[in-house]
Write a structure and sequence with these properties.
The chain is α/β, with parallel strands linked by helices and 486 residues long. It contains 15 helices and 17 strands. The strands form four sheets. An eight-stranded mixed beta sheet has the order 5-4-6-1-7-11-2-12, sandwiched between helices. A four-stranded antiparallel beta sheet has the order 14-15-16-17, covered by helices on one side. A three-stranded mixed beta sheet has the order 10-3-13. The longest helix has 31 residues, at 279-309. It is globular, with a radius of gyration of 22 Å.
C-alpha cells in the first residue's frame, strides 16, 4: 500500500478524532471474574456508577466473550494476541511458553516508546512478561507470600490469613484440613485493601506521567469480585440480602451430560465439599458478589476521577475488561470454567478521544480483539500473527455487520463452544453435543440438540465450528470500510 493510501485509511478510521498529540495514552483496566451485570447493562440492582459512567463516555459491548473461562489462559491469550488453542498454555506463565516471535501487547507499546507500567493483577503470574514493562508494582501479588502466584485474597483477619494456604493448595479436599472462608466482612478502609492499593499506585503513576509528559500504557488489574468476597462492610451494607433470590435454574440439570465440578469454590472451608450449595450460603455469596462489584467500582472510579482531574482523559484511551464471567448458582454451578453464557460473556467497554459517546453494540466481539484494536487506535504496527479483529470500526458505527460467531474452549482444547447471534453450540470430546437457542432460552436451560425442529440450526452451528474463527470474521476484518484510493 502506498504512503498516501496508508494515511487515508488511518484518517478514515480516525474520523471525528479531535486534534491533539499523535499518540494517545492507554489506561488498561482489568477486573477479575466480573460478570456483565452492571447498571449500564440494565441491572438496576447493582450499584456501579463509575463503570456505568465510563460506558456512557464511549462504547459498551453488550455481547463480548472470552476465549476461555479461566484467568490465566484468558489473560495470556489477550496479552499475546494468540487464541488459547494456539498457545496451549495450560498452567505456566506466557513467558517461555509462547511461540517464538511473540510480541506481547505491553512489549509492543514499550518498543514504540511508551512507558509501560503494571499495577496489580494483569497477567495471572506475578513475574510474567518482564520485558513488557518499564515498571511493575507487585505488592498485592506478594500479599499471600512468595509461594503464591496469581491470587490475592484480601483477607484482613489473622485467622483467615492463617488458613488461606490450605485453600490455595486444596488441603480441605485432599486431607480434610480447615480452610479459609469464601467471605469475610470487616471495617477495613479501602486503602488497606489490595484493590485500594492498586488504585493508589495507579493514581501515583498518573500524576508522575502528568509531570513527565510521557506517553503511557498503564495497566491496572483489580482482584475483586474474584473470590474470596472480602469487600469492606460498607459495601455489603449497600444491599439487603433479603432482596436476593437464588436463580430459577439453581439446580444442575439432569440431562446425562457430565460437567466439571466447581472445585475452586469447594476448597473454601465453609462451602460444601460435595453436593449442592445450601441456599443460605448461596444468598451470602450472591450478596457478597454484588458488594464486591460496588467495591471495585469505587476503586476504578478513583482512578478515572484522577485521570480527569489531571486532564489526561483528553488524550487517553480507556478500556475496561474482565477475563471471564462467573456462575452465581445458575445451572447449579459456582465458579467459572464452563462453556455457558454466564462464564464466557464478559464486561468490555472503551472510551477513546474524539470518538462518539454513549453508544451500545450487540456485535459479537472477543477479548482477542483488544490487541489489534489498541494497535489501530494508537497507530502502532500490528504483528502479523494476531488472531483477533480490530473492533475500531464499531466505535463509529456500532450496528455494522460483524463477526458471525465467538469461540471459546477449556484447557483440554477438545471441548469447544461457538456462540452465534442466536445459538450456542458446545462440542464435547465425549460426543455429547449441546445446542441452545439463546433468543428463546437465554438462560440456556434446554439442550435442543436432538430436537428435529432445530436440525437447521444444528447444521449451521456445526458449519461455523468447522470454518473456525477465520471463517467468522467480518469481511476484510473491517466491515463497512471501503478500499483506500490508489
Amino acid at each position: 500500500m502506498t504512503r498516501i493510501g496508508t494515511l487515508w485509511v488511518l484518517g478514515l478510521l480516525s474520523a471525528g478524532r479531535a486534534a491533539g498529540p499523535e499518540r494517545p495514552n492507554v489506561l488498561f483496566i482489568a477486573v477479575d471474574d466480573l460478570n456483565p451485570m452492571l447498571g449500564c447493562h440494565g441491572n438496576a440492582a447493582v450499584r456501579s456508577p463509575h463503570m456505568d459512567r465510563l460506558a456512557s463516555e464511549g462504547l459498551l459491548f453488550r455481547r463480548a466473550y472470552c476465549q476461555t473461562a479461566l484467568c490465566m489462559p484468558s489473560r495470556s491469550s489477550l496479552l499475546s494476541g494468540y487464541r488459547p488453542e494456539t498457545l496451549r498454555n495450560k498452567a505456566g506463565p506466557l513467558t517461555g511458553n509462547a511461540p517464538p516471535g511473540t510480541i506481547s501487547l505491553p512489549r509492543l507499546f514499550r518498543d514504540h516508546g511508551y512507558a509501560t507500567v503494571s499495577v496489580g493483577k494483569v497477567y495471572h503470574h506475578n513475574a510474567d512478561d518482564p520485558g513488557g514493562w518499564v515498571r511493575r508494582h507487585t505488592e498485592t501479588f506478594e500479599a499471600e507470600g512468595a509461594w503464591c502466584s496469581g491470587y490475592c485474597s484480601g483477607y484482613r483477619l489473622p485467622a483467615n490469613r492463617a488458613l488461606v494456604r490450605n485453600y490455595l493448595q486444596g488441603m480441605r479436599l485432599k486431607k480434610g484440613l480447615p480452610a479459609s472462608p469464601i467471605a469475610e466482612i470487616t471495617d477495613a478502609a479501602d486503602a488497606e485493601t489490595p484493590d485500594g492499593l492498586v488504585a493508589e499506585r495507579a493514581i501515583e503513576e498518573l500524576r508522575a506521567f502528568k509531570g513527565t509528559g510521557e506517553a503511557f500504557f498503564l495497566a491496572a488489574g483489580f482482584y475483586r469480585p474474584h473470590m474470596p468476597l472480602t469487600a469492606p462492610k460498607r459495601y455489603w451494607d449497600l444491599y439487603d440480602r433479603g432482596s436476593f433470590a437464588v436463580p430459577a435454574n439453581f439446580r444442575q440439570p439432569d440431562d446425562g451430560i457430565p460437567r466439571d465440578d466447581w472445585n475452586e469454590v469447594r476448597r473454601y472451608g465453609d462451602c460444601p465439599a460435595s453436593g449442592p450449595m445450601p441456599e443460605d450460603k448461596a444468598l451470602e455469596i450472591i450478596h457478597g458478589y454484588h458488594a464486591s462489584i460496588s467495591f471495585v467500582d469505587a476503586q476504578v472510579g478513583r482512578v478515572l476521577d484522577e485521570l480527569r482531574r489531571l486532564g489526561l482523559d483528553r488524550n487517553t484511551v480507556v478500556i475496561l475488561w474482565s477475563d471471564n464471567g462467573w456462575h452465581l448458582g445458575d445451572h447449579g454451578r459456582w465458579s467459572k470454567p464452563t462453556h455457558f453464557e454466564t462464564a464466557t460473556r464478559i464486561t468490555l467497554m472503551i472510551s477513546a478521544p474524539g470518538y462518539p459517546r454513549n453508544l451500545r453494540t450487540d456485535a459479537l466481539v472477543e477479548l482477542i480483539d483488544i490487541y489489534p484494536s489498541l494497535c489501530e487506535l494508537c497507530d502502532l504496527p500490528r504483528p502479523a500473527y494476531l488472531e483477533g479483529t480490530s473492533f475500531v470500526p464499531l466505535l463509529r458505527s456500532p450496528d455494522l455487520p460483524w463477526k458471525r460467531a465467538a469461540f471459546s474452549c477449556l484447557l483440554d482444547y477438545t471441548t469447544v463452544s461457538v456462540r452465534s447471534d442466536r445459538h450456542r453450540f458446545i462440542r464435547r470430546a465425549s460426543g455429547l453435543d449441546e445446542l441452545y437457542d439463546c433468543r428463546e432460552d437465554p438462560a440456556e436451560n434446554h439442550n435442543i440438540v436432538a430436537d428435529p425442529a432445530a436440525r437447521g440450526a444444528l447444521e449451521e452451528m456445526r458449519a461455523l465450528l468447522a470454518a473456525g474463527w477465520r471463517g467468522a470474521r467480518p469481511c476484510g476484518d473491517g466491515a463497512g470500510v471501503p478500499a483506500p484510493p490508489d
